[in-house]
Design a protein that fits this description.
The protein has 489 residues and is an alpha/beta fold. 28% of the residues lie in helices and 23% in strands. The protein has a 9-stranded mixed sheet. The longest helix has 18 residues, at 165-182.
């Protein structure tokens, strides 16, 4: 059995002022053919999962087309997307394959095309009208009946933080192999609930509404699993993509359409019933800092999700940093991070120990606040390369570009050329920071932070500041999502 593999993994924030271009893909992932194997082998990613799956299936050969991903950011340059689609859809390496597995995020957008994954699937179907195709998606995919119509099977991450990427690939490949080997005729059903559910309260690693819905989905599909393929996956969509397809719901793979619709209805109802539990209640950065949660020696992390790069933030908003600079912080506090290639270059030119006058935040977009000017000392310089310790994307190589650790007031502040979330222990180890000795960490991050650090701090709080992924979506200029989808009261 020859299984083709291709990948387009990017989450786009429509409110980011920066276009995602080839440089961002090459910094993270832009490979094809056998070059994919050393990049992903042994990693907790979809393609890493596919390679592990193949080892247990000596009857299967994997054939790699283009695999591409970039860190979440603004819309992708349309010419790049068009070239990617043409390359994969016309790839002669895929001649004679028995099935095709796609690793898709589901919330990419282009500078012109608001549904590039759908465009990719349509192009592939024109070439392979009868080929079994399965795909895996991020929990925050924007899935539609048009996407489902071009697939024979689909999976979605069940965990948030997303520590089951490899499992999502494994399950998608299991279904694909069954469809190929047994000649099954399956379909994918999507049921939307016409609501956008905020992701701030969406973690599945404890009690919470999404974990409850995942349990219901697994239980319901098990109860109906009488030998037919029935797999139900709730998804939460991604509001900040600002596309008509943004809508939470459930996706079901089935042989029997009636059974699939019943399962979809069950899970969609459970998701809708819990909609109010997703409403976040976040205090401002000033209010959180004024409460001094680090008092009495408690170790605390305060997150700024409005500029979280995993939600398309650019490491550029000054809200939390400005509030912190006006607060009496404990000695040894850390701020992670600002993305500022010019400042990183300036620090490298000055060298370790140099004193600088700097400006932080508001470099790309002053809608979310004015830059903060201050003096700083260069503590440490790095080339920005490390491997993730995990558990999320364990083993993946990371390239932050050149970085600098600066002392600004009481804050040790990380500045990077590239924009990636500080969600891994080795991010801090790279900068000589013993994360277990940090009394207060301020980080541009959200729920993924908890995978590596959830048990490390006495308390983790999120605050709301102005930014491209802020909790108060009424302050963002949406154009494509009906206002009623945001009403979850």
């Amino acid at each position: 059995m020859r299984i083709g593999i291709a990948r387009l993994w990017h989450e786009a924030n429509a409110f980011s002022p920066a276009i995602t271009r080839m440089a961002q893909f090459k910094a993270r992932e832009w490979v094809r053919g056998e070059d994919a194997v050393p990049l992903f082998d042994g990693t907790a990613t979809e393609i890493g999962g596919a390679l592990a799956w193949q080892r247990s299936r000596p009857d299967v050969e994997l054939v790699f087309s283009r695999c591409a991903s970039a860190a979440p950011a603004g819309p992708v340059d349309q010419a790049l997307l068009d070239a990617f689609t043409a390359e994969v859809a016309g790839d002669r390496a895929l001649d004679g394959i028995d099935g095709l597995y796609l690793s898709l995020h589901g919330a990419s957008i282009g500078t012109a095309d608001l549904a590039p994954e759908e465009s990719l699937l349509k192009a592939l179907r024109r070439r392979f009208p009868d080929l079994p195709i399965s795909a895996s998606f991020d929990m925050h995919a924007c899935l539609t009946p048009d996407i489902a119509a071009h697939l024979d099977a689909a999976t979605v991450y069940r965990t948030y933080p997303h520590v089951d990427m490899a499992q999502a690939a494994n399950d998608a490949l299991d279904m694909l192999a069954r469809i190929v080997a047994e000649g099954l005729r399956t379909q994918v059903v999507v049921r939307a609930i016409d609501r956008i559910l905020p992701s701030f309260n969406m973690r599945t690693d404890g009690s919470g509404p999404m974990g409850e819905v995942e349990d219901i989905a697994v239980g319901a599909q098990t109860a109906m699993g009488d030998g037919r393929i029935l797999a139900a996956y709730p998804f939460a969509s991604f509001a900040y993509a600002d596309v008509p397809a943004a809508n939470s719901g459930v996706v079901v793979t089935c042989e029997d359409e009636a059974a699939g619709n019943r399962l979809a209805d069950t899970v969609a109802a459970a998701l809708f019933e819990r909609r109010r539990a997703f409403i976040p209640d976040l205090a401002s950065a000033e209010a959180v800092l004024a409460s001094r949660p680090w008092a009495n020696g408690r170790r605390v992390a305060i997150l700024e999700p409005s500029d979280n790069p995993m939600s398309g933030g650019l490491g550029d908003t000054p809200g939390l940093f400005a509030a912190a600079m006006a607060t009496d912080l404990p000695e040894g506090s850390v701020f992670a991070f600002f993305c500022d290639p010019g400042l990183a270059a300036k620090a490298h030119a000055a060298g370790e120990g140099a004193s600088l006058e700097i400006s932080l935040g508001g470099r790309l977009d002053r809608r979310f606040g004015e830059p903060v000017s201050c003096g700083a000392t260069v503590l440490r310089l790095t080339d920005g390369h490390f491997r993730n310790a995990g558990p999320m994307e364990q083993g993946m190589r990371v390239n932050l570009g050149r970085t600098a650790l600066l002392q600004a007031g009481r804050l040790r502040t990380i500045v990077t050329e590239g924009c990636q979330s500080p969600n891994d222990r080795n991010y801090f180890a790279l900068h000589g920071i013993d994360i277990e000795a940090v009394p207060l960490l301020l980080a541009k991050a959200k729920n993924h932070f908890m995978a590596a650090f959830g048990g490390l701090f006495d308390e983790v709080r999120q605050c709301d500041t102005p930014g491209p992924a802020m909790a108060d979506v009424s302050r963002l200029p949406f154009r494509h999502i009906p206002a009623e989808r945001f009403d979850i009261s």
